Amino acid sequence: MILDPCAIEVHNDQLREKHRRAFDFVSHEIPHIDDILEKLQKFQIAIPSWALGTGGTRFGRFSGAGEPATLEQKIEDVGLIHALNRSSDAISLHIPWDIPKDANRLKQFASGLGIHFDAMNSNTFQDQQGQQHSYKFGSLHHVDPAVRQQAIDHNIEVIRYGEELGSKCLSVWLADGSSFPGQLNFRQAFQHTLSSLQEIYRHLPADWKLFVEYKAFEPYFYSTTIGDWGQSLLLTNKLGPKAFTLVDLGHHLPNANIEQIVSLLLMEGKLGGFHFNDSKYGDDDLTAGCMKPYQLFLIFSELIDGMDEKGMAHDSGLGWMIDASHNLKDPLVDLLQSVEAIKIAYAQALLIDRKSLREAQSQNDVVAAQEILQQAFRTDVRPLLAEARLRTGAALDPISLFRTLGIREKLVEERGRNSVATGL
Ligand code: RM4
Ligand code: MN
Ligand code: MN
Fold first, then answer.
1. Cα dist. 163→7, 100, 102, 158, 272 in Å?
2. Phi, psi (5° rounding) for residue 63?
């Protein structure tokens, strides 16, 4: 389904007056408003192909209806999100869930919707039918060189698919770990992982990046071979200048200070990108900003501060992506909510009075520092996001338009009740 641009115009006309009042109210208090609006228009967040269908838990999966059953349909779904918010112009594929059969045709189809291909993701956490060696005891860290080689070859194949589609990045997340003390030799597992990644790195095209994602737990329970940012940073430092650490918000132990992690990785020039989501317990993969919006804001505060210091462009300096799973809400609506929450945190962080904050820090004025941060966090920036959308031809209220147009109902009509997306 392709959205008719007239529908957006009609919708915006209905809301324009109300929006104008809200925007005028907030904007005259904000000094560099045009600069902020321009940044908001440019800022894009990629959508993972595996978040477009219904996610499951280990207890069950309650399928939605009208899920995208083919890669074309997944691209079409991202096209719909982007048409509504003009803030999600890329899709991230996971191989082998999304093997492109005719890359040129897919590329053309995607670019017709204003979509390009973000990071490619490899999968060595599941066994595929007909696969020679099992990943039951890991992949790149495995004790058996034949298993490691199979996982290396898979990653090289993923790079090839990505090259055909115009992607510029490989993201590696390993499930490798152990569930019982004594099961693994930690040093050997790390060395195997390093040499396997070095082999993959050798096949990385010159203008590509390699993102190494870490996760503290799951699916194994005792140890994870790339368990935290320190272990990822050790690897990316040893690998070379094209290797970076990827931060997935749900992959930390409870109460980890993620904003501090981000700040130091950025300082070291080793932060590659983000997987946004939110959680109460762990890798819950919930809508970004639904649980801890203040944390998301503090993360963006560090990002902007660190990126500005290095002269990095906010929109293209790092990889911005959602990594979520939708068990209850319509995935498309949930993704719209996530993008909105991420951009709210970004806009609020742009409002921070940096000069006064530095002054407060240098005076050890703890009270002033908190006031400055919370002044920005408590500003309602939603009219700024709406204005940025209006200026790019997106909908003033994407979720209400999604609902009034009955987009999911139309997708169900087209695809049927039982179409199921590949993924977890
Ligand atoms: C993992 C991790 C990866 C993603 C898979 C599906 O927990 O977050 O980024 O590829 O889930
Ligand atoms: Mn992730
Ligand atoms: Mn995850």
1. 36, 11, 13, 9, 19
2. -60, 145
What phi and psi values does residue 337 have, to the nearest 5 degrees? -65, -40
In contact, 243 and 193? CB cutoff 8 Å: no
pLDDT digit string, tens, across residues 271-329 = 999 999 999 999 999 999 999 999 999 999 999 999 999 999 999 999 999 999 999 99
Q: Could you tell which of 120, 135, 154, 173 is best to mutate to test the pocket of ligand 1, judged by most ligand atoms within 8 Å of the CB?
A: 173
Atom of ligand 1 nearest to the CA of 250: 8
Give tens-digit pLDDT for 80-93.
999 999 999 999 99
Half-sphere exposure of 416 (CA within 13 A, CB side): 6
Ligand 1 within 6 A of CB of 50: yes
pTM (predicted TM-score): 0.98
Question: To which residue do tokens 């008719």 refer?
Answer: 4
pLDDT, tens only, 350-372: 999 999 999 999 999 999 999 99
